[in-house]
Amino acid sequence: MAGEISSVPLLSSAGQPQRIMNRILTLALTKGRILKETLPLLDRAGIRPCENISESRKLVFPTNRDDLQIVVLRGTDVPTYVRLGAADIGVVGKDVLLEHGAEGLYEPLDLGIARCRLMTAGPSGWQHTGARVRVATKFVNIARRHFAAQGVNVDLIKLYGAMELAPTMQLADLIVDIVDTGNTLRANGMQPLEEIAAISSRLVVNKAAMRSRHNAIADIVERIGAAVGERA
Ligand code: AMP
After folding, report:
1. For atom 9 of ligand 1, which residue has the closest CA?
2. What is the pTM of this model?
3. Within 13 Å, how many C-alpha atoms sit on residue 4's CB side?
4. Which helix (H) or strand (E) holds 198?
5. What is the mean pLDDT of each run of 10 residues along the chain (232 residues)?
């Protein structure tokens, strides 16, 4: 599992960094598209970074709340920071939680932002011939579970980007990727096939922090929840 540090003696017997009781709360945000949609939501929840995150190269930002700072991370690192208590709360795509696991995390809120679909896709007119299917994706765990549930034999090819190129270059037959409008697929001669999961960003909370810092975290979750409700 990503983020395992069991051989590193940094954790207390309660499984949390010693400093967790005294420090201010840390909210880990996913950079990129999710960040753009998260900041207005936080603003409506009364949580405002003290400088413009989008225009800064910094990674840590104080906020208007004395008890809360923000860090900005790659999405795949957010669950690791929150699981291990380096951050108390996080905002991350459901795709990341499905792919890397949500062990050690509460998921109290669907933020309803950065909505998209995780889908299989293939060249226009593609049909399954019954042979083994080569599938290119960065979501290898999700793809493995999906095709296993259907009894389809697949060879998974791990890629880190531009999945839609793989069938064109005969590297793979199908891809598993995130689809929003479908324009990227169509521009590359591909069509969406099956939906695997509806994706949106989620608020996640470290389980131990939810107990030890309950009032402060419950207040933040409630405010963000109300901001999500306002938007709906
Ligand atoms: P589209 O062409 O609108 O279907 O967008 C597809 C591409 O945009 C995907 O390959 C993703 O890289 C990216 N994308 C779209 N929506 C999201 C999202 N909510 N989270 C992360 N990536 C996304």
Report:
1. 178
2. 0.89
3. 6
4. strand 190-199
5. 42 43 87 96 97 93 96 98 98 98 96 98 88 96 97 96 95 97 94 97 97 96 96 70
Q: Do domains 10-114+200-231 and 116-197 have the same CATH topology?
A: yes
**Cα end-to-end span (Å), the chain:** 35
Ligand 1 mutation pick, 33, 160, 180, max ligand atoms within 8 A of CB: 180
Give me the pLDDT at residue 205, please.
Answer: 98
CATH class for domain 116-197? alpha beta
CA-proximal residue: ligand 1, atom 23 (nearest):
178
The residue among 86, 33, 26, 36 whose CA lies nearest residue 62 is 26
Class of domain 10-114+200-231: alpha beta
What is the structure's pLDDT at 18? 43
- In the reported structure, the alpha carbon of residue 117 is separated from the centroid of ligand 1 by a whole-number distance in angstroms of 9
Q: Sketch the domain layout of the chain as residue ranges.
A: 10-114+200-231, 116-197
Q: Quick one: pLDDT at residue 231? A: 72
- Measured from the Cα of 93, ligand 1's closest atom is 20
Mutate to test the pocket of ligand 1, among 99, 117, 184, 201 (most ligand atoms within 8 A of CB): 184
* HSE, side-chain direction, 13 A CA sphere, residue 7: 0
Atom of ligand 1 lying closest to residue 163 CA:
10
